[in-house]
User: Which sequence fits this backbone?
């Protein structure tokens, strides 16, 4: 009699467990506030260090913190690069970035690791593909992220070995610059619950 009772109860318990797991594996949506976000870059040369910025575009990332899956991208306006020198910027856009031909940088997020608290700071890791100057490069970044009532702010730092990735080295006989550029993405936006679980990007 006891075994019969267990056999009848077990399917119901399994259904409840599956429902609980499905509810917990909820998709989250991060919407970038492009007006409040930006990309800072630093490039060293023999005389001084060059600092500049790029503007972010409207971007959306779907992620499931429990499953570790993600989709969507952070998008940067490559044509907006500004280093404070018109002559230097013309050369950067025409000869190095070729921004008229490649008007965007795009970080397509494929994996997400970390906890998303309602409020506070958390360490998250994102892995995916950085598309730059027509080339795709796998990268993984780790960043502290601050959450305040659905508002999110993060500073993502990484180094781009642009010469190794096929971009032109702007150095001249008299002026030598670094073959890699230091990048900090300051991204601001909102996090909300999505409708469906995120799936891995292809």
Assistant:
């Amino acid at each position: 009699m006891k075994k019969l009772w267990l056999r009848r109860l077990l399917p119901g318990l399994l259904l409840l467990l599956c429902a609980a797991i499905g509810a917990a594996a909820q998709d989250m949506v991060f919407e970038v506030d492009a007006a409040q976000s930006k990309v800072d870059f630093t490039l060293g040369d023999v005389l001084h260090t060059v600092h500049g910025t790029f503007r972010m575009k409207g971007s959306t990332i779907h992620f499931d913190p429990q499953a570790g899956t993600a989709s969507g991208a952070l998008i940067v306006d490559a044509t907006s690069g500004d280093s404070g020198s018109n002559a230097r910027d013309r050369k950067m856009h025409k000869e190095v970035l070729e921004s008229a031909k490649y008007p965007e940088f795009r970080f397509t997020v494929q994996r997400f690791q970390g906890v998303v608290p309602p409020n506070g700071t958390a360490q998250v890791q994102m892995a995916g593909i950085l598309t730059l100057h027509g080339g795709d490069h796998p990268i993984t970044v780790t960043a502290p992220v601050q959450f305040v009532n659905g508002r999110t702010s993060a500073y993502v730092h990484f180094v781009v070995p642009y010469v190794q990735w096929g971009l032109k080295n702007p150095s001249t006989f008299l002026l030598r610059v670094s073959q890699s550029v230091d990048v900090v993405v300051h991204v601001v936006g909102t996090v909300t619950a999505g409708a469906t679980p995120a799936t891995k990007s292809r």
User: Anything to note?
Assistant: The longest strand covers residues 69-82. The chain has a mean pLDDT of 84.
